[in-house]
UniProtKB/TrEMBL annotation, chain A:
Its main location: nucleus. The keyword Nucleus applies. Residues 15-198 form the HORMA domain. Pfam families: HORMA. GO terms for cellular component: kinetochore; mitotic spindle assembly checkpoint MAD1-MAD2 complex; nucleus. This is Mitotic spindle assembly checkpoint protein MAD2A.
From TrEMBL, chain B:
GO terms for biological process: mitotic spindle assembly checkpoint signaling. PANTHER family: BUB1 KINASE, ISOFORM A-RELATED, MITOTIC CHECKPOINT SERINE/THREONINE-PROTEIN KINASE BUB1. The gene is LOC118425548. Gene3D superfamilies: 1.25.40.430. Residues 265-304 are annotated as: Disordered. The lineage of its organism: Eukaryota, Metazoa, Chordata, Cephalochordata, Leptocardii. This is Mitotic checkpoint serine/threonine-protein kinase BUB1 beta-like. InterPro entries: Bub1/Mad3, Mad3/Bub1_I. Pfam families: Mad3_BUB1_I. It comes from Branchiostoma floridae. GO terms for cellular component: protein-containing complex.
UniProtKB/TrEMBL annotation, chain C:
Substrate-specific adapter of the anaphase promoting complex/cyclosome (APC/C) complex that confers substrate specificity by binding to substrates and targeting them to the APC/C complex for ubiquitination and degradation. Recognizes and binds the destruction box (D box) on protein substrates. Involved in the metaphase/anaphase transition of cell cycle. Is regulated by MAD2L1: in metaphase the MAD2L1-CDC20-APC/C ternary complex is inactive and in anaphase the CDC20-APC/C binary complex is active in degrading substrates. This is Cell division cycle protein 20 homolog. Residues 83-95 have a biased composition (Basic residues). Residues 36-77, 96-106 have a biased composition (Polar residues). GO terms for cellular component: anaphase-promoting complex. The keyword Magnesium does not apply. The lineage of its organism: Eukaryota, Metazoa, Chordata, Cephalochordata, Leptocardii. CDD domains: WD40.
Length: 204, 304, 537
């Protein structure tokens, strides 16, 4: 009996993988918003996840926004049409892009809903995710202070043939001119692989 | 993944975050253990020497540019600070050198160096008062904003508001920045007032604990009648009578002249710049009498 | 079929004089038609977005509809009033460029009758870079092949793939932070005052140190533990590759030892409870045991794989924490000293403290974890009783409350800055205090029921707090660089702090009046650690 349960825990389906990835983004984006000081720290509460204490927002409007984006992301992950998710941090007053967190998503295109599930221990995936989120927390080491009031936006890079839903619109990439780039850790569910990196304005 | 890429994470507690951010290449290089080269200097030491040489030999129009680059280089290459990378010493040298140079009074970079320096001292407002008196930075919005922020941190919101007003009045550039910052400041103050302000710490330190009495008597301890450590309870003494010193007679009753009485004595919120304050209040100088130098180990004794 | 369409488009565009068949209707036609016609929201935005993608890039064509025409046009005279919200304008959609024609209601005069590139949204740097990509000279000798590949991957990631993807954003944007909200991270970059208590403290605490001692060559590294004060009033200080003993009672100083390897340095020191043996951890992963009276090295225990940055004693068990994240228990009475391994951390173990009754071991690491272990352990496969993850930075400051059993205080590093109190039995967090700067060390004062913590940038102060209210009693400033280590004198009256400014400061902050101090023996309270003695294996 235990053997069967064990097998179930380690096998990842396409649906399961999409779930894991979008859940990571939910916690990851919340961590970025807290650690960078984009919203007041009092509006966050602590939860346990991946063996870490993470901060998630309690603001309903913000929660709704994130849910809407991530639900759509999950669908697109299942369709295997997502290439990147980008968190763009912009100064409200000057409209300048100050920080850009880019998560590249690679998907094994051979996987379908009915494919045989892959084997990868959930613990291993969680440990990898834990390492990425810890790095986000530690990034204060080199990132500049976001001096001005900032807003953030989420951009999703998809295949060009994708039918754009009503509630979405096309956008520019919002690059930062003259930026410093730091590559962060990555994690993989054996079906999806997510690489993280952050760009910020050059110190000069 | 290249292990060197994540070395910053392994030493994250040894890195002091910089307001303008760090270049990751310099950070990674600075965190590597220094290989003691026989006789030669490390790359960083060589670069430092190059800067010092450039400072001595510069003969162009903008001497401050060399200092500016040197300061920024020091910040990026000495993540821990420490002795070699002592930013405060370097800043002090630089700022003293240029303090009378009117060319830089409203130079953006120069003001940034002052603001950095002020942030490292115990009394940043002191520095800003000095700068105001010397009319340094009067045309630069950054100066007014930084000053107002320090005042806000100290809780002096009235003065902070006055600083914003004066900066806008003097048309410091860019004015829009100051206007915006003042609005945000006012929004913050308004919000804080609505929320009832910071609740005073009343729990725990209740009235059951004895209070020290101002100018109350103390009992001497031991043979030398030294002052006690604990200043309440058994260590206190109540004096029922005064000292027994008699007053002496004044030269005459009342004054021979009359003192001018003001109708409405005004509170001066920000003193006007006079230009008289010529020496900046460097902490090294102002606290000179308050600091000890390290002494010999053998002369120090602590009873165990 | 899209490629045919593309060909058609290109052909059409190359004909200079022909009418434009797609895109917004020209003004004259629109006026003639009498009805305002909006050319559709998606069209306009795709026009803008494609322009932004393209900017000055002529070579990289996207097969999007009107892109070629857009880039071929010269900017017109009219300012791009239709394009981006300018700074200062309160817009509900921060950071997004939209044309007014996006609304469901069509505006009276659609302003997008010809394309006007938007300078502020164009990425000139990117465009220019791409245009000149061939001409860009990269200093290739400097780059190793892996670096080159990395650079290529980076540029591909950041700049390249725009051509083949759509970039989408959700229309209803996220809410903004309240007006005037100041980024709380600002505390990291300059001095911040923590609120102080309104009540005056009942004793006199000198604000200047009793003594300042010069500590040349002391290593500026947060992760090490270079100070220890024995019950016999000897202060052990590790300076670089040597350990010095300072007799606080007489003032005498003696150099105990020096590392032999040229690059080796001492990374941790810890006194045994009786004060006659000193454990020394070093960068070459050794744990040495020295007999102080005889000035002789008695043991050299090697079992760790990397530098030993933390050490603590529990009667005859010496625990060592290393850079690899492993904790070893060494039984100093037997030859085969390595009796247990605790694998609870993935990065350097910088804090290690046994509780006074020997029941718990608290360990903190650079992985932001605080683990509480029991005294019972097996050779391998040990699991912590509690793994506490609330700290958002490295946990080095650890200290057990001397008068309340199982209460632990921990302090977090730069990204955390909090002091937390824990019940080690349940793993429950009792209290949290934000100190606004990096915490390196915590000590308790039994006499006054107070806590003292050492801090880093920008104040470099020692803060004394009243326990359990955590009201701030006072701050002791003076160090010119961040405080790294602290230790307390055996009688509990004096605290020594070592900082990166290469000084040791001795603060008489917990002094007691002479007649109040009961006659104390020089050796410490020996709580018989019966629990450990029962563990006879």
């Amino acid at each position: 009996m235990a053997g069967v349960l064990q097998a179930a825990k380690n096998s990842i389906t396409l649906k399961g993988s999409a779930e894991i990835v979008s859940e990571f983004f939910s916690y990851g984006i919340n961590s970025i918003l807290y650690q960078r000081g984009i919203y007041p720290p009092e509006t966050f509460s602590r939860v346990q996840k991946y063996g870490l204490t993470l901060l998630v927002t309690t603001d309903n409007e913000l929660k709704t926004y994130l849910n809407n984006v991530l639900m759509q992301l999950k669908d697109w992950l299942l369709d295997k049409t997502v290439e990147k998710l980008v968190v763009v941090v912009t100064s409200i007053d000057t409209q300048e892009v100050l920080e850009r967190w880019q998560f590249d998503i690679e998907c094994d295109k051979t996987m379908t809903e009915d494919s045989k599930p892959r084997e990868k221990p959930l613990k291993e995936i969680n440990d990898e995710i834990k390492a990425v989120i810890r790095q986000i927390t530690a990034s204060v080491t080199f990132l500049p202070l976001l001096e001005e009031n900032c807003s953030f936006d989420l951009l999703i890079y998809t295949d060009k043939d994708l039918q754009v839903p009503e509630t979405w619109e096309e956008s520019g990439p919002h690059f930062i001119a003259k930026s410093e780039e730091v590559r962060l850790r990555s994690f993989s569910t054996s079906i999806h692989k997510v690489d993280a990196m952050v760009c910020y304005k050059n110190a000069d | 993944m290249d292990p060197m890429e994540n070395s910053w994470e392994l030493s994250k507690e040894n890195v002091q975050p910089l307001r303008q951010g760090r270049k990751i290449a310099n950070l990674t290089a600075a965190l590597q253990p220094v290989n003691g080269q026989e006789g030669g200097l490390t790359r960083v030491q060589q670069e430092k020497q190059a800067f010092e040489a450039e400072l001595r030999m510069y003969s162009g129009d903008d001497p401050f540019s060399v200092w500016d680059r040197y300061i920024k280089w020091t910040e990026q290459n000495f993540p821990k600070g420490g002795k070699d990378g002592s930013l405060s010493t370097l800043l002090e040298r630089c700022l003293l050198f240029f303090k009378d140079d009117k060319r830089y009074s409203n130079d953006h970079r120069y003001l940034q160096a002052w603001i950095k320096f002020a942030g490292m001292t115990n009394q940043p407002v002191d520095i800003y008062n000095f700068l105001h008196d010397q009319a340094i930075g009067a045309q630069v919005s950054l100066f007014w904003e930084a000053w107002a922020w320090e005042l806000e941190q100290e809780g002096d919101t009235k003065k902070a508001d006055a600083v914003y007003m004066e900066g806008i009045q003097k048309q410091a550039q860019p004015v829009e920045l100051l206007v915006r910052k003042q609005k945000e400041f006012q929004a913050r103050v308004a919000r804080a007032t609505l929320e009832g302000g910071v609740p005073q710490q009343s729990a725990g330190m209740s009235g059951t604990e004895a209070q020290r009495v101002t100018l109350g008597g103390l009992r001497g301890q031991g043979k030398k009648h030294q002052a006690p450590v604990s200043r309440t309870g058994a260590s206190t003494k109540v004096y029922s009578t005064g000292l027994g010193v008699k007053p002496c007679a004044p030269p005459q009753v009342g004054q021979a002249f009359s003192v001018f009485s003001e109708d409405n004595p005004q509170d001066q919120v920000i003193p006007a710049p006079t230009g008289e304050w010529t020496n900046p209040p460097l902490p090294r100088v102002t606290s000179r009498e308050n600091t000890h130098k390290p002494g010999k180990w053998t002369e120090a004794k602590i009873e165990g | 079929m899209s490629h045919l369409k593309f060909e058609n488009d290109v052909n059409q565009l190359l004909r200079l004089d022909s009418a434009f068949t797609d895109g917004p209707v020209p003004r004259w036609q629109r006026k003639a038609m009498e009805s305002s016609r909006c050319s559709g929201p998606s069209n306009n935005t795709s026009l803008n977005s494609s322009c932004r993608n393209m900017s000055l890039n002529v070579s990289g064509c996207t097969p999007m509809k009107t892109s070629n025409r857009a880039s071929a046009k010269t900017p017109s005279h009219t300012p791009g009033k239709a394009k981006t919200p300018r700074s200062g304008r309160k817009s509900k959609t921060p950071g997004k460029s939209k044309t007014p024609g996006n609304n469901a209601k069509t505006p009276k005069t659609p302003v997008a009758d010809r394309f006007i590139p938007n300078r502020s949204a164009s990425n000139f740097e990117l465009g220019n870079f791409k245009c000149n990509a061939d001409k860009v000279h990269v200093d290739e000798e400097m780059l190793s092949p892996s670096k080159q590949q990395y650079q290529e991957a980076m540029s591909e990631n950041l700049n390249g793939n725009v051509v083949n993807s759509k970039i989408l954003a959700y229309k209803n944007k996220a809410p903004q932070a309240p007006e005037g909200y100041q980024n709380n991270m600002r505390v990291l970059y300059s001095q911040t005052k923590t609120p102080s208590s309104t009540r005056k403290v009942t004793r006199h605490i000198p604000q200047v140190p009793e003594r300042i001692l010069d500590a040349p060559e002391i290593l500026d590294d947060y992760y090490l533990n270079l100070l220890a004060w024995s019950c016999n009033n000897h202060l052990a200080v590790a300076l670089g590759n040597s350990v010095y003993l300072w007799n606080a009672g007489t003032g005498d100083i003696q150099q105990l030892m020096s590392m032999s390897g040229p690059e080796d340095y001492v990374s941790a020191v810890s006194w045994i409870a009786e004060g006659n043996f000193l454990a020394i951890g070093s960068s070459n992963a050794e744990v040495q045991l020295w007999d102080v009276a005889a000035q002789k090295r008695v043991r050299n225990m090697t079992s760790q794989s990397s530098r030993v940055g933390s050490l603590d004693w529990n009667v005859y068990i010496l625990s060592s924490g290393s850079r690899a994240g492993t904790i070893h228990h060494h039984d100093v009475r037997i030859a085969d000293h390595h009796v247990a391994t605790l694998d609870g951390h993935t990065q350097e173990v910088c804090g290690l403290k046994w509780s006074p009754d020997g029941r718990y071991l608290a360990s903190g690491g650079n992985d932001n974890l605080l683990n509480i272990w029991g005294y019972q352990c097996t050779r391998e496969g040990n699991v912590p009783l509690h793994t506490l993850t609330q700290h958002q930075a490295a946990v080095k400051a650890l200290s057990w409350c001397p008068w309340q059993a199982s209460v632990l205080a921990s302090g977090g590093g730069t990204a955390d800055r909090c002091i937390r109190f824990w019940n080690a039995n349940t793993g429950h967090c009792l209290n949290t205090v934000d100190t606004k700067s990096q915490v390196c060390s915590i000590l308790w004062s039994k006499e006054y029921k107070e806590l003292i913590s050492g801090h880093g940038f920008a104040n470099n102060q020692l803060t004394i707090w009243k326990y359990p209210t955590m009201a701030k009693v006072t701050e002791l400033t003076g160090h010119q660089a961040r405080v790294l280590h602290m230790a307390m004198s055996p009688d509990g009256t004096t605290v020594v702090s070592a900082a990166a400014d290469e000084t040791l400061r001795l603060w008489k902050c917990f002094a007691v009046d002479p007649q109040k101090k009961p006659a104390q023996k020089s050796h410490p309270d020996k709580k018989t650690n019966t629990l450990l003695r029962q563990q006879i294996r």
